[in-house]
Design goal:
This protein is mainly alpha-helical and 69 residues long. Helices cover 83% and strands 0% of the residues. It has three helices and no strands.
Length: 69
């Protein structure tokens, strides 16, 4: 996990950072919209739904482990 996190930090993050600055995006949802030239907003809503889903699972796992603790 640490190796993959380090590789992500060194290889992926700088590219995304420069690209989001060029496209003037503050969220990944807006980045995907602008990267794919989606003017309808469907891609942004879809990516926001995925973020909501995974953050909900993450928070539920944290609350469950806190309850067990």
């Amino acid at each position: 996990l640490l190796v993959c996190m380090w590789l992500n930090w060194k290889l992926v993050a700088p590219k995304i950072r420069t690209r989001t600055e060029k496209l003037n995006c503050s969220t990944m949802s807006s980045y995907f919209e602008k990267q794919c030239n989606d003017s309808s907003g469907k891609l942004g809503v879809l990516s926001a739904c995925f973020c909501l889903l995974f953050y909900s699972v993450y928070i539920c796992a944290g609350l469950t482990s806190l309850g067990v603790l």
